[in-house]
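Board notes (copied after class):
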Amino acid sequence: DKVFFSGGRSDVPNILAALDLFVFSSLHEGLPIAVAETMLANVPMIVSGIEPLIEATGNGKYAEVFKPKAEKDLAEKILKLLDDKSPREKLAQKACEFAREKYTIEAHIKNLKTLYEKLSGK
């Protein structure tokens, strides 16, 4: 019955480090920065099957995906991941590797360099 908007947080890394699992149950999303932050923090994730979250998780390859508005499906995915630590850790590790290749500043600079070289004809 209560929702608190806490404003900006400087302790997001600490919060993510304390989680066993991150659930992103949004029905509408523009730029899901929390997805990249969660993957880079090596935290396994469950996301709703909306296009921006599917895209941000490598077409759903690096997160469990549940059907939007399907609470039973979400509950099953949560229980599945919480029940067995090994698959949860493997999912988090693969997601972290994907995020390092796609969402870090180093990856961004590499992509910009490639684009500039293509545009300059090099």
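Comment from the instructor: The helical segments are 12-17, 33-40, 51-56, 71-83, 85-102, 105-120. Strands lie at 22-24, 45-48, 64-66.
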